[in-house]
């Protein structure tokens, strides 16, 4: 049985991914991923962290990846994947 | 059929959980057909089968019964070998004369089901000369190539006694070795790391004169650790495979072998070369039916005039978004960290990039290094796609029956 993570919990994990590289996650969800240096590899790591936490594999067949440009997009997308 | 001459080492002492005495005192196995696959429960049963193979005209395969499934046992019977298991004989399904002197080996099976390789006691004997008397520790999986190396050493040279260790005794072998007077030990790097980790104190009391490592890539860190514990011992690294026979032996305490040995023709020695990053060996001790030059499947790299064996080619590459990370390189970087005792690295399926690098490590006792610190250590030494994205710290080294860690 998997447990869904809250938006805040995922946000904390995202901050952890960045802090491991000496970067800080801004408070503003509209900040662009390019500006903060959050790359596809970082997104992959975050997704694996979420998978490990919820004990389930996320289904990435879902559309919408191209729309991810901001911190908010990442959080929305992972929220959406957990409920897919 | 002629009776084989009694082995030179017949008087050497053999110690198993159920026997302590000379090879020549071992009773044979009753009802052992002349061509048989003996699937053994322990080393006592195994050495009895070996003694019979060495002293009577026959064809033999010896393997731990846990390593052979029903389907493979059926295959043995179809190829003309009776299967002997727990005292029961299942006759061969193909009638043929035994190939006298034939010894069949199963490869370690790390890449799938164990393969069957043809040798003789002679082709398995790779140590010659007049070594000093020693009591060897044999912790290898029963019937594996490295196990046969210790067995044939003891059969063919005087003064080479052996203490055999069962898989269930691996945690307490240093104490058993102390009691048996072990002075030489051969094991995989994983075996040595685990011993230093779990039983470092007892290990340091063992009067080891000869330490041999083989069966897996050997890194400088484990060689250096063993040198610290045993400043006087001869530390040898052996590159051997069931298919190629023992091929490379190095005693200088440095990882790998001198690059000057490549492409050199020396009578009686194998010719070593690197082809497309892979170690290729032409050896007179090769198993029968093998090509003159055997592609080992092991990745070889030249670093500072040394040839380093860094891992299996097939399993070493991790594709991270099109960039190729080398699992063995990442593992090497982790093992270079002073607090890392053991590391395993593999690819994990991940969105967007296909795979990411993940690592498991065991830290030295008392270390408080965190996964974040280890990630930073890797990030300072590796391209970003090679830095482990998931890193787990394990409480102890996981180990398989073959004594090779799953790296």
UniProtKB/TrEMBL annotation, chain A:
SUPFAM superfamilies: ACP-like (SSF47336). It comes from the Bacteria. Gene3D superfamilies: ACP-like. Residues 4-82 form the Carrier domain. Signal peptide: none annotated. InterPro entries: ACP-like_sf, PP-bd_ACP. This is Acyl carrier protein.
């Amino acid at each position: 049985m998997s447990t869904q993570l809250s938006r805040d919990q995922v946000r904390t994990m995202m901050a952890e991914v960045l802090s491991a590289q000496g970067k800080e996650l801004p408070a503003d969800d509209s900040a662009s991923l390019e500006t903060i240096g959050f790359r596809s590899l970082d997104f992959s790591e975050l997704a694996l962290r979420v998978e490990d936490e919820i004990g389930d594999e996320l289904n990435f067949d879902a559309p919408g990846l191209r729309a991810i440009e901001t911190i908010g997009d990442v959080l929305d997308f992972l929220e959406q994947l957990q409920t897919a | 059929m002629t009776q084989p001459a009694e082995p030179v080492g017949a008087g050497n002492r053999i110690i198993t959980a159920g026997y302590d005495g000379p090879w020549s005192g071992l009773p044979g196995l009753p009802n052992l057909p002349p061509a048989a696959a003996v699937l053994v429960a322990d080393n006592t049963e195994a050495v009895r089968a070996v003694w019979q193979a060495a002293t009577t005209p026959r064809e033999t395969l010896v393997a731990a019964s846990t390593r052979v499934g029903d389907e493979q046992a059926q295959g043995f019977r179809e190829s003309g070998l009776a299967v002997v298991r727990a005292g029961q004989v299942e006759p061969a399904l193909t009638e043929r004369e035994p190939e006298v002197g034939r010894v069949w080996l199963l490869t370690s099976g790390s890449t799938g089901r164990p393969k069957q390789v043809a040798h003789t006691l002679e082709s398995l004997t790779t140590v010659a000369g007049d070594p000093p008397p020693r009591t060897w520790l044999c912790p290898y999986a029963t019937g594996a190539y490295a196990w046969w190396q210790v067995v044939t050493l003891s059969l063919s040279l005087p003064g080479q006694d052996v203490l055999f260790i069962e898989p269930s005794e691996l945690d307490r072998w240093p104490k058993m070795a102390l009691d048996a007077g072990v002075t030489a030990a051969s094991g995989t790097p994983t075996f040595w790391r685990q011993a230093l980790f779990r039983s470092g104190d007892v290990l340091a009391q063992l009067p080891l004169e000869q330490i041999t490592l083989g069966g897996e890539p050997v890194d400088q860190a484990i060689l250096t650790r063993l040198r610290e514990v045993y400043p006087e011992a001869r530390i040898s690294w052996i590159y051997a495979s069931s298919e190629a026979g023992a091929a490379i032996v190095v005693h200088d305490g440095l990882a790998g072998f001198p690059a000057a040995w490549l492409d050199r023709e020396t009578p009686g020695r194998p010719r070593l070369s690197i082809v497309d990053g892979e170690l290729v060996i032409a050896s007179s001790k090769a198993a029968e039916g093998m090509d003159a030059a055997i592609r080992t499947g092991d990745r070889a790299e030249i670093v500072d005039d040394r040839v380093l064996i860094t891992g299996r080619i097939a399993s070493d590459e991790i594709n991270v978004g099109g960039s190729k990370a080398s699992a063995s390189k990442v593992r090497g970087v982790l093992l270079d960290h002073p607090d890392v005792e053991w590391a395993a690295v593999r690819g994990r399926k991940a969105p967007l990039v296909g795979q990411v690098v993940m690592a498991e490590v065991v830290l030295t006792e008392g270390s408080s290094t965190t996964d974040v610190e280890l990630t930073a250590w890797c990030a300072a030494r590796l391209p970003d796609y090679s830095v482990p994205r998931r890193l787990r710290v394990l409480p102890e080294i996981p180990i398989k029956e073959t004594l090779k860690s799953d790296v």
